[in-house]
Amino acid sequence: MELVFDGIVTAWQLLISLDQELLAVTILSLKVSGLATFISVLIGILGGTCTVLAEFPGKRLLISLVNTSMGLPPVVVGLFVTIMLWRNGPLNMLDILYTPTAMVIAQTIIATPIVTGITIASLQSLPSNMKLQILALGASRIQMVWILIKEARLALLAGIMAGFGGVISEVGASIMVGGNIKGYTRVLTTATVMETSMGNFDKAIAFGLVLLLVCFIINYFLTRVQQKERLR
Amino acid sequence: MKRVMQTLFAVALSLVMMLGSLPAVASTKTIILATTTSTQDSGLLDALIPLFEKESHYFVKTIAVGSGQAMAMGKKGEADVLLVHSPDAEKKFMQDSYGSSRKLVMHNDFIIVGPALDPAGIKGVKTSAEAFKKIAASGKLFISRGDNSGTHAKEKLLWKAAGLTPEGNKWFQQTGLGMGQTLNVAAEKKAYTLTDRATYLALKKNLNLSVLVEGDARLLNVYHVIEVNAAKWPKVNSAGGKAFSDFMVSGKTQAVIGSFGVDKYGSPLFFPDAGKRPESLGL
What we know:
heterodimer, A: mainly alpha, MetI-like fold, 11 helices, 77% helix, B: alpha/beta, D-Maltodextrin-Binding Protein, domain 2, globular
């Protein structure tokens, strides 16, 4: 228990003094995971909407695949992305292994199925004849899609939160494709792992607490937007 | 809804701007250093890398893994230079011409640590073989790295020298983790383990483990720097690898290594050896 207390004290001291390392690590975490979430929201909402509205053979299989991928283990994603990006791997011309860009790619692969899956579930939970109704009232196809997305927005925001929460808290992929390089690819989760193995438990707890704080602040704002919408 | 859209749009815009602001470094000025966990967990690399980067203007991507994995990266040409401590595997690596040069950098020693109460009674035993036999006979828990690292390679050698095969026994557990984490596991389980002295000293304050066996000639822990052979893998940055290798054996760096940890632990964690003949260490 003493350690946890030490950790809280250390976290507070680092925060108060605006510790350069902590600041840099936190900002990189936000950049990488924010960007990955943004890309996965674009792909996920578009892909999810298309999947729901289109009828094609293998649709159920595709949805099951997406749902399974919602639980993709980050280490497995990390391993495959690493092998692809190796100097002598198939995507070597990108030359981005052990860079923040590689981390964005890995995290996007992790978050996209989560956003897609929740998009599919939320659109499918709308009344089934709503689509016909909207079209019957004279809306164009694009307007119809827009109205459906608007109707499902509460659940979609939940999807964004789940995607962001999934990637900012993962460590397996980030440490593999990023390498936890000081001042370059070190993020809150990989820093926590490293400080733990260095025996600096107070610092490890401090990084962990900052991670929780960051997650809370972001989810608080997203939730506020979501709940405000609900009241209208 | 309009306000939400505006907010989302602002967030999106700022994220897109971030895309350009992710740090990027030209690859010719980058070297990948694959190294053992002990050099990172003890804090030595945090002292050395900034000096090298300032002096050479190379950007070092340090990937801290076990010596086994570091050499596997070298064999695939995925690293430019290695800092490792697994002499037998290193010799094989050089024989198969995966490396273009191998230089002695420093040494310290391995120690056998365990609970102060020492239920297997190994304290003060002269040789590691005898200590391992006693642990096996007592059936007290021994924690192994089990990750093909330099320390694990040394441990396997010691078991062999003691004429024992620990795998499959109830008292023998493998973590598959780095040295720091393995020490924590051993401390929690009140178990014995083999560790390099540097990591032990760096973590000592949180561990309830005592040094029980030390000083056996077999327990020597030697670090070499190896340049990966660019003839095998043209993408290897051989100039960068050579610069780092030369840096590690330069007089200035060796002085830093020799004094590293003295202020914190009262004694150095590593002893500089550049230019010495391996035989002088008893190899």
